[in-house]
Amino acid sequence: MMQRRYCAYCGRVAHRCQCADECSAARQFFARGTKEYSPLWMNTPYKRGVPPQVKRRERTALRRHYAEWHAALVQTYGENCINCGATSDEARLVLDHVLPIAKGGLSVFANLQLLCAECNRIKGKLHIDCRPTHA
Predict the structure, then answer these.
(1) pLDDT (tens digit, 9 = 90+) per residue, 62-93?
(2) Has residue 107 been placed in a domain?
(3) pTM of the model
(4) What does the alpha-carbon distance between residue 16 and residue 41 come to, in Å, rounded to a whole number?
(5) Among 94, 76, 98, 83, which Cα is nearest to 33's?
(6) How far apart are CA 7 and CA 70, in angstroms?
(7) pLDDT tens across 36-57, in order?
């Protein structure tokens, strides 16, 4: 029996994934930044059907710590969008969940990145980590 593969960006089963299409949100997101799109597969699906109580709890935690986490991300990665490089003077910078709450992500500092509002809108519920890897 062949094991199913899931797209790491959108979470769909491989044969239903449309991230490789030229007009997909993943391709648009990568086109705005410096990284190239390349398919990324995983063997287990994302958590489905996150209960509303969990979403509310995570959003409340985000609101409670927003200013603190925003300042820490600016200090760590600079005052620009991690994807496209837009500065805070050019665009409004917002906190973005690397793994979205809708896919089981938590509102913790380790799951956040700083994106401009446009990159955040395009990214939507995709699971894309733009943070530079530290050796």
Answers:
(1) 999 999 999 999 999 999 999 999 998 889 99
(2) yes
(3) 0.88
(4) 13
(5) 83
(6) 29
(7) 899 999 999 988 888 999 999 9
Locate 115 and state its tokens. Answer: 């994106």
Question: What is the per-residue pLDDT for 23?
Answer: 92
The residue range of the domain holding 40 is 6-123
> Is position 74 within any domain?
yes
Structural domain count, the chain: 1
DSSP single-letter state for residue 131 = S
- What does pLDDT average to over the chain? 92
Torsional sign, CA 32, 34, 37, 42: negative
Report yes or no: 126 and 10 within 8 Å, Cβ to Cβ: yes
Any residues with CB less than 8 A from the CB of 118 and at least 6 apart, and which? Answer: 32, 84, 86, 91
**Has residue 133 been placed in a domain?**
no
